[in-house]
Amino acid sequence: MRLDQGSLIFSPQNGECPSWETALGQSREPRDDMPPYYFKAEGYENMLKGMYFNSVPLAKTSCVLGKKKLFVTASESYLNPEYQEIQLASKFDNIIVHFQNNTKIFRNTPIILLLTKIQDVNKSHYRRRSIKYSPHTTYDTIKNQESFEEIQRHYQDRLMCYGFFIEHFDTLHLYCVSVDDNSYTYSNLSLPQTEWTDWADWELKERKKNQNEILANSSQEDSIVEPPSQNQSFTPSQIIYYGVPGCGKSNKIREQLKDVPEKNKVRVVFHPEYCNADFVGQIYPYVKPDNGGVEYRFKPGPFAEIVRRAYRNPAEPFFLVIEEINRGNAAAIFGEMFQLLDRIRPEDGPEELSGNVYDTGWSSYGVTNIDVNAYVRQKSTDNPEKIEYDDSIPYGDKIKFINNTAVRLPPNLSIYATMNTNDQNVFTMDNAFQRRFKSKMIRNVLDENSAQYKTEIDDTGVYWGDFRKWINEKILLP
């Protein structure tokens, strides 16, 4: 999201008076078929989604508001029309600053963002919402001023932030230039691509975008690997496709994986009764033929099954598809395997452990599970009467999987999931889980030429497409 020029300067001086906020674009007067209050700023969805997932109690949040410059708690801000009402407060602990083609990560430098609303009916921008990032904002013992000073301390140039971007729900990227550098054109400064969300024509733009994606098939995250070769390297994906019921999340994954052999895919559906033993695997009694007695064996779940296939076929891509990931308790279902979702990035460099060299794409950490380890080393799963194990399984020329090797996700194993965002009977997924996945929204686009759009509602003379347009206009009104 592009900020108003000069609205965020980390160390203002010489009479500089930053506004410390950027309006989201509401207008008091209606325009054409636009509702009287609307969001226009490009990238606002990215900001509001991230702020929602990192919200903090308003009772502990304060900011300088009004002409009297008084500290007011967020929960009290609505009591005086002179103040902007603080409707949402969010704390971001992971900060990444981009300056002069370099990036720096700040781990213990939290920043508080506020969503505010003008509530004075006499003001021309009554009900306008803004993102506020004042240094005078505090949450509990955290102060923006201290974080701004800590960031500025690492740079010789005085920084001015021109854009925000929220990654993985909880990482706030700050795009900065030097306050004293006048060689750039502010509107041309680059920012990550975000969804265009102008209310008036988002459907048309979305349809065109989807058509272009289908024709070009050029999206990096949607591209499926080329025919395998022994020397092929993989960049694993962990993506959650989210949206309302029926918007095409599962179909999106099916289209992406249509050229992948069935043996390279394992699909599972999470539900409230699904547990870690179902997902990873568990010990079951096995009755031998001909009254041979009973013994206890490991019965693999979808997770153990796809991990085994990926380890034993390092030149092929494999995919674990999780439908309705938030309909079950995902954190409990993954259990200790949750730790495997962190992957080694190119900038992290390889990790050597017990003679194995784990490079980009491998899990950053391993989990010791003797049952999954043994199942990966099992020579064949076709004959339950004769179970034999390999002493060692090679993965490339740098990995040897032996009986005491911790289980990790290999680079040729990707995870795709679907998540329903509009259902009450779902579990909440915490930020720690969600940040390990890339999220992509699938819009429920209703084509004007579709049969559903032109379907009459009973004998009312009203068509679904017209009703949908009318009800959305009502929802967007204040």
Automatic annotation (TrEMBL):
InterPro entries: ATPase_dyneun-rel_AAA, Methyl-DNA_Rec/Restrict_Enz, P-loop_NTPase. This is Dynein-related subfamily AAA family protein. PANTHER family: 5-METHYLCYTOSINE-SPECIFIC RESTRICTION ENZYME B, TYPE IV METHYL-DIRECTED RESTRICTION ENZYME ECOKMCRB SUBUNIT. GO terms for molecular function: ATP binding; ATP hydrolysis activity. It comes from Hallerella succinigenes. Residues 240-437 form the ATPase dynein-related AAA domain.
